[in-house]
Every structure is written in structure tokens, then in C-alpha cells.
Amino acid sequence: MCRHFAYLGPVRPLSELLLAPPHSLYRQSWAPRIQAHGTVNADGFGLGWYPQGDEDAPARYRRAGAIWADPDLPDLARTLRSGAVLAAVRSATPGTSPEASAAAPFRAGRWLFSHNGAVDAWEHLPADAAAPADPTTTATTPRSAAPDAAALLALEARSDSALLWVLVQAQLATGASPGDALTAVTLQVAAVRPGARLNLLLTDGRSIAAVRWGDTLWYRADGEQVLVASEPFEPAEPDNPGGWTEVPDHALLLADRTGVTVTPLPPASPPAP
Ligand code: GLN
């Protein structure tokens, strides 16, 4: 499993988010504390940030391999400054590409996206998700946004996450809000892959949408800034884990710099027999 986070708030050096906290994403790459699946996240990493003065065009730095093995990363993180960041460390799911192109964040226009989880038999997902729903049920699971085989061939990387990003983009292209896009894809995929783990994270630099579905997710907000992360950056104390709040499983989180809302997601409708 991977670990990821998104931040919106005052402009600050990336190192303050990525390296400095006691349980930063950097440290989570070799010592995650509450990761539900996997042990280390050494199969790639990526930073995405919205440059000051060019906030509609997020920049990325992605590499295959472990984040701690990149000798230039501390200098980059020390000197890059931003008020909107999405970053991830990766533990590759078997059968997916090891390339940097499979490391989050994925990007399109002003959007950055990350997936923590796994979808079994993801190569067959487009066909399965496109199968007609059972007409004897009242299932409302959206299935229409499944990409065809051509979209599968055009994936940026051979991975479940790259495919999910295509599905999310298809929803956004219909005018769906970020929260509706993540909800639709989560329910669409979970309907045909009940074992799928679908922790999704999406930002445009102004707001964050996130789904917890099968792994961990936390947030910390103080009215001026918000952090949404797989796990807290501070040590957990019995009654106050550094101001962090856990998001319940199967929930949608929406946030901007001024606040956070968390809404339960409905169960995914079972697929047609
Ligand atoms: N399945 C995704 C990948 O292979 C995410 C992996 C993860 O969450 N560990 O990159």
C-alpha cells in the first residue's frame, strides 16, 4: 500500500510537510505505523505542487525507487515553496509497472490525483464495469463512464491507479464535482470488485476530495490550513493525536482551506449475476 497526503494552506517549504514532522510521509515510506496492507513504500514516490503565481499549472517530481534513496530530494524540498501540495510514496501492487510514470500524483490540467489501494483483475475492469446491470434490481451504480479497450492501451502506466485516474477524469469531463467524481468511480469499481481498496485523493490546489475505502485516512484542519493524510504526521497520544481526526471507512471527505466535511458513502450495489 502506499501512503499519501494533500495540503492546502499558507505557502511554506515542502520540507516542512514532507520531511520535518516526526511521522512525515518521508518516514512513512519505511516506517508506516497504521498501514493496513504492506510494510514499506519503496517502489517510487512523487511530489505535486502548485507554484506561486502559476497556481493553475501544478508541477511534479516523480521517481521510481525509494524516496530515501534520492540524494537530491532534501534540497528540492527545502527550496520549493507552495500553499497546495499532493505527495505519495508507493508500494507497487504485483503486476503493475515499476516505472516513475506509475507513481502518484497523476496529473491532468489543474488536477492532481493519487490512489492508495489495489484493484484485482484491473485489466478486465472496463469490460466488467460496462456489463449491463441486472434489470431485475434497482441498482443505481453508475457504469457508463467505463473506458473502452483503447483507453486501456493509452494508460500512462500499466497500473490499477492509472486506470482509476482515467475513470475519474471521465467523470470530471461530464461536469461532475470532485466529490461526485470520486464517489461515482468508487461505487462503480467496488460494485464489480468487492475486494477493491480505493483510497482516492484529488485536488485542484483550491479544494481536496478524498475517499477512504479499505485503508486508513486522517485529517487535521485549523481554519487556515488543512492536511489530509493516510496517517497522522505526529505521534498518537491517547486522547489527542496532534489534533488529527480519523475519517471512518467508506466515507467521502471534502475540504478547502477553511474547513472539512465528511460524509458516509452508500454500499456499492452488487454486480449483475
Ligand atoms: N495499486 C497501486 C499501485 O500499484 C497503489 C499501491 C498502493 O496503495 N500500495 O501503485
Relevant terms:
273 residues, alpha+beta, Glutamine Phosphoribosylpyrophosphate, subunit 1, domain 1, 7-stranded antiparallel β-sheet, 6-stranded antiparallel β-sheet, 7 helices, 13 strands, 29% strand, binds glutamine
Any ligands, ions or cofactors bound here, and which? Answer: glutamine
CATH architecture: 4-Layer Sandwich
For this structure, what is the CATH homologous superfamily? Aminohydrolase, N-terminal nucleophile (Ntn) domain
Rough shape? globular
User: Largest sheet, if any?
Assistant: 7 strands, antiparallel
Q: How many β-strand stretches?
A: 13
Q: How far is the N terminus from the C terminus?
A: 30 Å
Taken together, the total number of domains comes to 1
Low-confidence stretches: 137-142
Structural class: alpha+beta
* Mean residue pLDDT: 90
Q: Within the largest sheet, what's the order of strands?
A: 3-2-4-1-10-9-11
Portion of residues in beta strands equals 25-35%
Order of helices and strands: EHHEEHEEEHHHHEEEEEEE
What percent of the residues sit in helical stretches (DSSP H or I)? 10-25%
CATH fold-level topology: Glutamine Phosphoribosylpyrophosphate, subunit 1, domain 1
